[in-house]
Structures are given as structure tokens and as C-alpha cells.
Amino acid sequence: MAVAQSEIAAPVARRNWLGEAIRRHPTVIAGLALLLIMAGIAIFAPYLGTVDPISVSPVHRLRFPSERYWFGTDAYGRDVYSRTLYGARISLTVGLGVAILSTAIGLAIGLVTGFSRITDTIVMRIMDGLMSIPPVLLAIALMALTKASVENVVIAITISEVPRVARLVRGVVLSLREQPFVEAAVAAGTPFFRTLWRHILPNTVAPILVQATYICASAMITEAVLSFIGAGTPPQIPSWGNIMAEGRSYFQIKPYLIIFPGIFLSLTVLAVNLVGDGLRDALDPRLARRM
Predict the structure, then answer these.
(1) CATH number, residue 150
(2) CA torsion sign, 64 to 70 to 75 to 76?
(3) Rounded to an integer, what distance in angstroms lies between the CA atom of residue 243 and that of residue 225?
(4) Which of 98, 221, 275, 280 could hold 31 in an S-S bridge, CB 3.0 to 4.6 Å?
(5) Higher-confidence residue: 235 or 95?
(6) Residue 11 domain-assigned?
(7) CA pair distance 216, 219, nearest whole angstrom
(8) CB-CB neighbours of 254 under 10 Å
(9) What is the number of domains present in the chain?
(10) Measured between alpha carbons, how far is 8 from 67 in angstroms, rounded to an integer?
């Protein structure tokens, strides 16, 4: 059991180094700073916006950006600036919701299938079938079966992302279950779920954390695509995809209708990807040794 104890203690000793690596890494800091700004915009949107984002004013339709309407107005006279600020709420909600749900479900599936050969063949064939369908097409098909809502968008995108997390965790578990400290735990009669909890799960945190950031960014883009083609959130909800979809007919004469929400979406996705890239570099032992 000495081997098992030393292996178990290794991740604990690694955590302090990880905190130092993250604090030293400019990519993580820049991504977190930008992400916090976007989160602040989403939280304080009612105080930062100039008018109600869903109030219609046909008299002021299609106005260019000005002192009164900072980002101009759309075809219904709604303030694009206020709608863009409120759109941050939808994108961040969908991104974080999908990342949390898909990571939790995929982690559970990957742990069980990677450590149990009985369930591996059946469950992973189902995951392979889901992975054979492009995520956007699968989300569109699922949304076609339900009504348009933020909750259904989260569920549809989560289903398309779960197989990727499950495959990642399964691969990690397959390599870990052959390690001496896991074999020692099994030989000592440690219960199945206790082995997963104490010996396997802590060693899957690093790759899962990095994968969750990419899922968050991908989910925000997928939500914007679904809303853009009319298969996502309801049209009355101000999301970046809806704003760009409503402004595409006027893009040649009113490009601001797409440019401003597109910039906010790009910056948010960039922030999440910067965090993911920084965590990947900090958690990769080979890169850490180079640093």
C-alpha cells in the first residue's frame, strides 16, 4: 500500500504547483479578466442598458449609432446596445450550463465504462453512434422535436457534447486502471465505487477541466448558430444569435446590426478559449518542465 499512498499523495502535491503555474500564466489571467468583464456585463445588464431590450419603437427603427442609441436600433426600433448586453446572459448561461451538465454526465459514463468491461461495449457503442452525427445537426434535430427555449437549447447541446467527454474520461481511466496503485486498491478489496472516487476520479480532473472550457466555448457558438437559423431561443429573447439573424437582411446598409453582437460573441469565446489554452499548458507536465 506504500505505492498507493505515494501515488495518491502525488496529485495533492501537484495542486500547489498548479496554482502557481496558473498565476504565472498570462493566457489564463487575460482570459479570466475578459471573462469576468463579460460576466459583469451579463449580471449588471439592467443597470448598463439604456432602455428595455424588448421595447418596440417603430418611429426610431434602423437608426445609426448615436449618443442616444450607442449601437443603433434594429428593424423594430429596439435598442441594439441593450439587446447586446442582455445577450451576454443567454450565451454565458448556455455555455456554463452545457459545460457543467455534459462534464458531469460524461464523467460518470466514462468512469463506469472505463473501469467496468461489462458496460463498456454497450454504452460506448451508443456514444459512438451519437458522435457520428455532427453536434450542430444533432442539436437541430433535437430542437425540432421540442419547443424553442433556453432550457431545451442547453439540453440539446448537452446531449451532443456528452459522448466527447465520456470518450475522454474513458481513455484516461483505461490507462489508470493498469497503474500499480489502482491494482493495489483492487487487490486489497476496496469497493468498486470507492476505488473510482479515491483513486481514479482525482486523476481525471485536469483533462476534464480543460475539456470543459472548450465545451463552454463550443456551446456558445452552437447556441448562436441555432438562434441564427431559427432553431434556438425564441425570437423575443435577446440573444446574440437572434440579433444577428434579425439584422442579416439589412447587413449591406446597416452592418452594425451584426457587427456589435458578433464582436461580443467573439470576445467571449476568445476569453474561454484563452482560459482553456492556459490551463492545458499549465497542466501538461511536458510544457511545465519546459517552463
Answers:
(1) 1.10.3720.10
(2) negative
(3) 11
(4) 275
(5) 95
(6) no
(7) 5
(8) 19
(9) 1
(10) 60
Q: Is residue 215 exposed (0-12), middle (13-18) or buried (19+ Cβ within 10 Å)?
A: buried
pTM comes to 0.82
Question: How far from the centroid of its chain's Cα atoms is residue 221's Cα?
Answer: 9
Tell me, yes or no, whether 270 lies in a domain: yes
Among left, alpha and beta (phi > 0; psi -120 to 50; other), residue 11 is: alpha
Residues in the chain: 291
Q: How far apart are CA 46 and CA 120, in angstroms?
A: 49
Backbone angles phi, psi at 79, to 5 degrees: -70, 115
Whole-number Cα distances in Å, 278 to 25, 32, 107, 232, 281: 7, 10, 22, 31, 5
- The answer to whether 107 and 139 have CB atoms below 8 angstroms apart is no
Cα 200 to the center of its chain, rounded Å:
24
pLDDT tens for 159-205 read 999 999 999 888 888 877 767 666 676 666 666 667 777 777 777 78
Which residue has cell 445609426?
Answer: 64
Please name which of 159, 167, 244 lies closest in space to residue 208, comparing C-alpha atoms: 167
Report if residue 3 sits inside a domain: no
Q: Which of 222, 91, 206, 215 is nearest to 165 (CA)?
A: 215
**Number of C-alpha atoms within 13 angstroms, CB side, residue 62?**
11
Q: Give residue-wise pLDDT tens across range 216-267.
A: 999 999 999 999 988 888 888 888 999 998 888 888 888 888 999 999 999 9
Q: Is 215 within the bounds of a domain?
A: yes
Q: Can you give the pLDDT at residue 38?
A: 93
